Amino acid sequence: MPTISVSNSGWGLLDTQGITQNFSKSDPVKQLAPGVVLVGRYLIQDVIGVGGMGSVYRARDMHFPNVVKLVAVKEMINQGRDQVVRQTIIQNFEREANILVTLNHFSIPKIFDYFSHDERSYLVLEYVHGKDLEAILSETQGMLAEDQVIGWAIEICDVLEYLHGHKPEPIIFRDMKPSNIMINHQSHVVLVDFGIAKAFQTGQKGTMIGTEGYSPPEQYRGDATQRADIYSLGATIHHLLTKRDPRLEPPFSFGERPIRQLNPAVSAELEAVVQTALQYNPEERFPTATEFKNALLAAAKKTGALDRIKVPNVSSDQMIKPVWVFRCEDEVRGSPTYDLGMIFVGSYDNNLYGLDAVQGEFRWKYPTDGGIVTKPFVSNELVFAGSEDGRIYAVSTKTGRLAWSHQVEKPIRSSPRVADGLVYFGADDGYLHSLNIISTRREFRFDAGVAVRSSPAMSNEFIYFGNEDGDFFCIDYHGQLKWRFRAKRAITGTALVVAGVVYFTSLDGSVYALDAKSGWVLWRFRMLKGSISTPCRVESFVFVGSADGYIYCLDANTAKEIWRYETGHQVSGSPVVHNDTVYCGSADGKMYALDYKTGRVRWKFVTGGPITSTPVIANDVVYFGSSDHMVYALMA
Amino acid sequence: MVNYFKKWFSKKEPEIKPVAIKTAPLDAAELESVTAPIPMNPPQLVVGTGQSIGLQRDHNEDTLYAVSAILADGANETQFGLFMVADGMGGYEYGEVASSIAARATTQYILSKVYLPHVNPEGDAPQESLQEIIETGIMKAQQLVRARAPGGGTTLTAAVLIGDQVTIAHVGDSRAYFVHPGGRIELLTQDHSLVHRLVELGQITEEEALIHPNRNVLYRALGQPEPFKPDIQTFEMPHPGFLMICSDGLWGTVDDAKMMRIVSDAKNPSEACSKLVEAANETGGPDNISVVLVEYL
């Protein structure tokens, strides 16, 4: 790799925070210690910022011994390789300082002095009491108000107008970003950190690092024009409105994250103005700061007017008609199962139902002695279901007649799974049970300590499940523990095992991804609240619901959120993907069908009660239950 | 060397009388039967590395690191591997310092947070996830590079393999690939380079990117003054298959098809690495070359 040239970034931070790095003792570039007096006049008090070129200090001007006059002292360390280069750098610096000292605008700090000695040059300027926008952004809960941001943006356009109109040469600010914009105690904008540091970065070629997200593409051609400042201001406004830091995103990717997608409260007018400023081609942006300002003013006027008109939500909630509906005698909290043209579903009315999948006609019901909240499992022409009465039942799929039942000591809220002639299920008695489905003999029971409500997930001869204490277990088919993991709170949802990774949620608010072989946590994703939802993976997308009301779509490799969709209430059911649609119910009573890549609603279907049931999809029909006592069949 | 192996692998020196058997080169089918992969128990990692200053530079600014381990105790068997390449840059002789510091700091953090707890008989698995640990390790490396190599910078592409899952952290333009059996090479990382971004945006073509004046400009590297986040992704490790990490001294000079051919044809990862380095130098060796190749048997 060739040489390095630090970009124009990271220099300023003329404020009271923003010290982002540790200077160790062995640092070759020594900072000035508090107490040092520069040129017999400026008493260094503290470091207020650190950048690539040197530090920024708060200092007291000792020419005013009877009052405390604070100044900011910017230090630039001359990194020129030889005497000639160093001399050129100093000359450039002094020339620019001479330009800046003539500027007179209330949004530009006054320059009092400059001097150079040894390999360092200093600029002494007005100390601004206030906070920079980066600090304000990080301290603000939620989003900044649009009016506030427009106000600042208009002031910045003002000062850009002044700079760009400078004679004989326009002055290009070059480094517009939240950390270079201070809001002073009078709530006005002050630009800090002018491009003066540029002089210290010349003479290097080759690999450059640190290009930041606020800079326009043409900066790489070395062009710095008015339209570059306009782009950077657009980028800054985008960051302020969306809280999405462009330095953490690929360059020039604003078009891929429209403002209103991240912050729907922003007006379409403002979004359009910012979009114009952020055009890739300079010719398509506002040609001048004045035009940018006028567009902002126009948007502000328009939205002020629009504010008073509430745009009604035109999309009707009920977008589709059910294929059929079946009424149970109580809530249907559990999930249905499809097998050979039949739907099997339990209800809080104690019955296990067998329904015709095409017409929704009643075929049979089997009454247990407790509500059924589990999802039935079909194997060997038997339907298995656990009940609140503490029994697991095996019922004939055809007739609904009982084949056998088996009593455990506490309610069964974990759904059974059958593999190799054994049925596995957890119970509130703290065990994971394994019974032979023919002889009903106990194969083993695994002591999990506390209630097991999560359903066993089977993969590769291993069984994965959690308990209400937050333990997660991997055991083999003989009930031998292979590994365990501990989450902070209960693991009630069922695990999903795909491509050697186990995904599950916990009431601690995390989605976990563990190496199925070793139990190592590969990643976790934090939701706003706990979850009992079972993840679903399609391609490299992981879908999951949460009590925070969102349906999330995560990237299975990076654990990054791809989209999330806000429902009206907790999402306790689990998402299911069919073709290119995610189906998921919410406690707001609606079943949602969302585009799986974008999270956009295809349709939603309103029921009369919370939906905790996970849909099952067969032959392009979506089946699920609701607390309104109904079982629904909808076209997918 | 030969004596060394003799010492270890023969109990005593038997008197071998050469027997008059004629050997002929095996035909392809016979060769196949001899070289068909033997299932390994426990499955294991075989590692090769290669590095060269190239033919046009006067010093090496690349750093590579590789460690592989296995713990099999009957109840469990866990493969562990940590592999990385860092490609330093910087005008003040800080390039090699930056890459070495970054690789060491990241390695030290990951081994102490991931590997040592894993072999500790009384240890508990860490609460943080592997992706979080790796990210913290890279942030520590970033701080150290900023402090010890100011003005210098480095790429860093690191892979942590646990069990069958490999987690790759990436900053800059070094690359990680999977080479699947049957001849498919899969690029896992996205270069954090300006030209790559311009290609993505459709502003320039791949061909233009190769000669673009700013082809060396990275928008993300350790040592940069601005904050950043590494790209971190977890994949299922191809089994059988290869993981390859290399600096641009290799991928910028040898095309995918050739890299794949060399990897597939070599007897073992070490031989493959030395042939990859050779191939890069045959093009003129414009840059430092580093490569780590891991085969999962």
Concise synopsis of the structure shown:
The complex is a heterodimer of chains A (636) and B (297). With 636 residues, chain A is of the alpha+beta class. Chain A is elongated.
Structural commentary:
The longest helix of chain A has 19 residues, at 146-164. In chain A, the strands form eleven sheets. In chain A, strands 2-3-4-5-7-6 form a six-stranded antiparallel beta sheet, covered by helices on one side. A four-stranded antiparallel beta sheet of chain A has the order 12-43-42-41, with no helix packed on it. Helix content of chain A is 15%, strand content 34%. The model of chain A is unreliable at 1-28, 197-211 and 305-317 (pLDDT under 50). By secondary structure, chain A is α+β, with helices and mostly antiparallel strands. Chain B contains nine helices and eleven strands. In chain B, 34% of the residues lie in helices and 26% in strands. Chain B has one domain: PPM-type phosphatase domain (Phosphatase 2c, domain 1, 4-Layer Sandwich). Classes of the chains: A alpha+beta (636), B alpha+beta (297). Chains A and B meet through strand 1, strand 11, strand 28, strand 31 and strand 32 of A and strand 3, helix 4, helix 5 and strand 9 of B.
Tally of DSSP β-strands of chain A: 43
The CATH architecture of chain B can be given as: 4-Layer Sandwich
Shape descriptor of chain B reads globular
Decide which structural class fits the backbone of chain A: alpha+beta
Q: In CATH, what is the homologous superfamily of the domain at 133-191 and 211-306 in chain A?
A: Transferase(Phosphotransferase) domain 1
Separate helix tally of chain A? 7
Radius of gyration of chain B equals 21 Å
> Biggest sheet of chain B, open or closed, and with what strands and sense?
6 strands, antiparallel
**Percent of residues of chain A in helical segments?**
10-25%
